[in-house]
Give the backbone structure.
Amino acid sequence: MPSACILRVALPLLFLTNFLAFSAEPNPQSSPHGVQITQLTNRLRVEIDGQLFTEYYFKDVPRPYCYPLIGPGTAALTRNWPMKTTPDEAHDHIHHRSLWFAHGIVNGHDFWTEGTNCGKIVHEQFLEIESGRDSGTIKSLNNWIAADGVPACTDTRTLHIFEPANPNERIFDFEITLHASHGPVTLGDTKEGTMAIRLAETMKLKPPGQGHIVNSTGLRDNDTWGKQADWCDYYGPVDGKTLGVAIFDHPQNPRHPTWWHVRDYGLFAANPFGRHDFEKLADTTAGNLTIPAGQSVTFRYRFYLHNGTEKDARIADKYQDYVKGL
C-alpha cells in the first residue's frame, strides 16, 4: 500500500513538473504586438511591438514634448540635449526639446523659447490614453500660460501612433486644436515656430553633419528655408545607416502649403505664421492669424520616419496616401 500511495502522488507531481517546464519555454507567438502606452510619473512610454518608440513628457516641463524619437531599427533620430548630455552634441537652443509644438508670439508673449519671461504650455489632463493592435492614441488638454500668469489659450492635442506596415518605417499623426478660451488669440508673425523637431547631430546639413533636406517642390538643402511646400524631408546618417524624417502638412490646414523653418543645424519646423520673415516683407504683421473669442483652429501633421533618401522612401507617394486618408 505505501508504494502504491507514493506512485499515485509521484505521477501527478511528475505531470505537473513537466507541464511547468513546458510552460516556461519561450513562446514566440506571445511577444507583444501593436502600440502599447504606459503612464509613468512624469511621462507616457510608447512602445511599438515591445520596443521603445518615444516618451511623451508632460509634467514639470516648459511644454509637453516627445523624447527620444526612435526610427526604423533602434536609431534615435532626435538630439539628446538638453534632456541628456552626450558627447559630440551642440548645446545651443535649450528650447529645442526633441519634438514639440509651440510658437514665438501668442498674444504678444513668447511660448517658443524658455526663461523667466517666457510662457509655458501646462498639461491639464489626459482625455484619452489607448493602446491597440493597429494603433495607439494620446489625447490631452493643455493651458498656455504667459509669464505674467495670464492664460492665453488652451489646446487639445492628439498623437496617433500606428503599427508600421513594414520595418522600414514609423508613422504618427499630430493634431492640435488651439482654443480661444480666454478671449481672442493672435498668433503673431515670427519665424520662431511651430510644429518642430530637432534632429540628431549626424543628420544635420551643416558640417560635420552629412544630412540633406528636400521639399515637395524639388528645392534642396538651404534653398528649402522659408519656402512653402506640401511636405519636407530631412535625412542623413545615423548609426551607419541613412535615415530620415518627413513632415506632411495636411491640405486642410490653414495657409496650406505651410512655410518651412528648416535649418542646416538640425531644426526642422512647419510654420504657417512667419510670412514677413520668410518672404522678407516690410509688414511685420503679415503672417498674423487671429482666432476670435470662443472659436478654434486646427492643424494636422504626419511624421513619416524612414530608411534611405526621400526617393528610397517614396515620400511623394506616402504624402498622397496621407491626403487620401490611407
